């Protein structure tokens, strides 16, 4: 979870993620973790800036050959 997603918007001061969306995200992550657990896998969940969290995970794991992720598309004005 990137803390920057829970700040207020620059233009209008609205929350980027409101309480209903946050609840949905948390429930979805919990459900995904439970589903993966039933299949013998797991889900790593971290809070922090992705550029820091991914680097730290790679360092912890040691033998990472590939990292795949996506960047959220931002509106260009």
SSE succession: HH
Query: Structural class of the secondary elements?
Result: mainly alpha
Strand content: under 5%
- Tally of individual helices: 2
The level of helicity is 40-55%
Largest sheet: none
Whole-number total of structural domains: 1
Tell the overall outline: globular
Computed CA radius of gyration, to the nearest angstrom: 15 Å
Mean pLDDT: 84
Kindly, what is the distance between the CA atoms of the first and last residues, rounded to a whole number of angstroms? Answer: 26 Å
Overview in brief:
By secondary structure, this protein is mainly alpha-helical. The protein is built from 2 helices and no strands.
What would the keywords be for this entry?
77 residues; mainly alpha; Rossmann fold; Rossmann-like_a/b/a_fold; damaged DNA binding; DNA_photolyase_N; chromophore
SSE topology:
Layout lengths: L18 H20 L11 H12 L16
Plain-language structure description:
The protein has 77 residues and is mainly alpha-helical. The protein has a single domain (3-61), classed as HUPs (Rossmann fold), CATH 3.40.50. 42% of the residues lie in helices and 0% in strands. The chain has 2 helices and no strands. The protein has helices at 19-38, 50-61. It is globular, with a radius of gyration of 15 Å. The protein starts with 18 loop residues before the first helix and ends in a 16-residue tail after the last helix. The mean pLDDT is 84.
């Amino acid at each position: 979870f990137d803390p920057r997603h829970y700040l207020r918007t620059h233009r209008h001061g609205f929350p980027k993620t409101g309480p209903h969306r946050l609840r949905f995200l948390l429930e979805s992550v919990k459900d995904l973790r439970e589903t993966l657990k039933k299949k013998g896998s797991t889900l790593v969940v971290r809070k922090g800036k992705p550029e820091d969290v991914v680097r730290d995970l790679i360092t912890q794991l040691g033998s990472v050959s590939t990292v795949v992720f996506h960047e959220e598309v931002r509106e260009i004005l």
